[in-house]
Amino acid sequence: MSKSQRLVEYLKSKGVAAELWRFPDRFTAIGRMIDSYLSGKTDADDAAVHLLFSANRWEKREAMLAALHAGQTLVVDRYAYSGAAFTAAKKVPGLDLEWCKAPDKGLPAPDAVIYLAMKPEAAALRGGYGNERYEKEEMQKEVARQFSLLADDTWHTVDAAQSIEDVEIQVRDIADSAVAACSEGPALRLLWEAKNKL
Ligand code: 2DT
Ligand code: MG
């Protein structure tokens, strides 16, 4: 079971209505194009692929909003922050971080971002890389750097090199606080109305 799924199960066990979402959603028509690109079956222009990832979130916007308004807590495994960080990490002239953020402007913003931080060297030692595009140490290093530029005060960094139990305790704690804060009723924010930069 993924960490995100475990978090959903934990929240449900506490009586919090929660759902797991993940991006890219590889099961829509756009998602299948993304899947084919990530698995290396097809090549595509970097800007065009970036816009597909964003469109894959936009096509889910109505459903996300409906779930949120029905009181669901959405645990989202990757979202627009991954979108911006991964494309910016490619260092394609013109596709800087601001360009990469732009297409997601106006999507619902997360109340809390939980960033599981691990040094790319340590991740490589865990043998975690598969055969997909981007699963390379150099790329992951640059992605981590881009993520650090995106961090705002919705961010919580958890050291993923700890034991799974310790990671889970911290993730649960952050989620509990976020759910409690939302129940006090702050309005839904939109990307990229960041609060403050870290
Ligand atoms: P996983 O399915 O294993 O998470 O890998 N990505 C993801 C992007 O480049 N842009 C995006 O908008 C998103 C959501 C991160 C998916 C890979 O796709 C990358 C890893
Ligand atoms: Mg993957």
From TrEMBL:
Its EC number is 2.7.4.9. Keywords: ATP-binding, Kinase, Nucleotide biosynthesis, Nucleotide-binding, Transferase. Gene3D superfamilies: P-loop containing nucleotide triphosphate hydrolases (3.40.50.300). The keyword Oxidoreductase does not apply. Residues 4-168 form the Thymidylate kinase-like domain. Pathway: Pyrimidine metabolism; dTTP biosynthesis. Pfam families: Thymidylate_kin. Signal peptide: none annotated. It is an enzyme of class 2 (transferase). Belongs to the thymidylate kinase family. PANTHER family: THYMIDYLATE KINASE (PTHR10344). This is dTMP kinase. It comes from Coccomyxa subellipsoidea.
